[in-house]
Amino acid sequence: MGVIVKSGLKHHLSTWGVRLLDQLLPPRCLSCGAGVQDSGRICPDCWKELDFLQGPMCRCCGHPFGFDMADSLCASCQKSLPPFDRARAALRYDDGSRRMIISFKHGDRADYSDFFVQLLVQASQNLASSSAFVVPVPLHKKRLRQRRYNQAALIARKFAAGKGFDYVADMLIRHRYTPPQEGNYGQRQRNVAGAFAFSEKYREKIQDHRIIVIDDVYTTGATASACARILKKAGAGSVEILTLARVCSVT
């Protein structure tokens, strides 16, 4: 709890006040609680556990390749291109990243948000730099009451502010409650079928515009595809998916 309070206070304190607060509440690693130099960070040991997706990857969905395959598509995208233009993720979803993301998503650890936004900015370097609408994957109101905040919206808003993009919280609407996503792509696709809708008040603004959809984890791409399909149908010029992490098969 101290980390959360400290992170919020630092935005409102002078340099002297921040130094005093650091003495009273020494910065701790977000993940393991070990001492760190600055608040809102993770320690070197936890950092080493993260697998950053920065190497060769599918030019469409961002699935990492085990060797250099410049400007290539993965087998899945060769078989059937997804409705989005590109998807990128900061991390591999594995033991190193899972604990932090689950804590952020289900453990009321909103203090992870600034750190995660830095990872999103890094992962977005290979995306176009032109202006965009940043849109979070929405939560159904029932799930929002359970979690108290939409983790995708929290990082999407901060990401948009940092990049100077327009943040649009309600362009996508989740009007059907769905159970937790499980199973393969086909099962997940059926699970999210009809779950999302486009907010018609943005119909004129979206025409030929670039959209960046933010979520926490890319698993099979079913949610990303459902959102992209709706946005493209509404008139979006391009749709890119940006997530903290993605599930990757062994390559």
For the sheet with most strands, the description reads: 5 strands, parallel
Helix percentage: 25-40%
Coarse morphology: globular
Spans where pLDDT lies below 50 across 5 or more residues: 1-13
Write a concise keyword list for the protein shown above.
disordered N terminus; alpha/beta; single chain; Rossmann fold; two-stranded antiparallel sheet; five-stranded parallel sheet; 251 residues; 11 helices
Write up this protein.
A five-stranded parallel beta sheet has the order 1-7-6-2-3. The protein has a two-stranded antiparallel sheet with strand order 4-5. It has helices at residues 2-9, 15-24, 44-48, 75-79, 95-106, 113-123, 141-147, 151-163, 185-192, 203-206, 222-234; strands at 86-92, 133-136, 166-167, 172-174, 196-198, 210-218, 238-246. It has 251 residues and is of the alpha/beta class. Helix 6 (113-123) crosses helix 8 (151-163). It folds into two domains: 1-46, no CATH class; 49-246, Rossmann fold (3-Layer(aba) Sandwich). The chain has eleven helices and seven strands.
Give me the secondary-structure topology.
Layout: H1 2-9, H2 15-24, H3 44-48, H4 75-79, E1 86-92, H5 95-106, H6 113-123, E2 133-136, H7 141-147, H8 151-163, E3 166-167, E4 172-174, H9 185-192, E5 196-198, H10 203-206, E6 210-218, H11 222-234, E7 238-246
Parallel strand pairs: 1-7, 2-3, 2-6, 6-7
Antiparallel strand pairs: 4-5
Summarize the structure.
The chain has helices at residues 2-9, 15-24, 44-48, 75-79, 95-106, 113-123, 141-147, 151-163, 185-192, 203-206, 222-234; strands at 86-92, 133-136, 166-167, 172-174, 196-198, 210-218, 238-246. It is of the alpha/beta class.
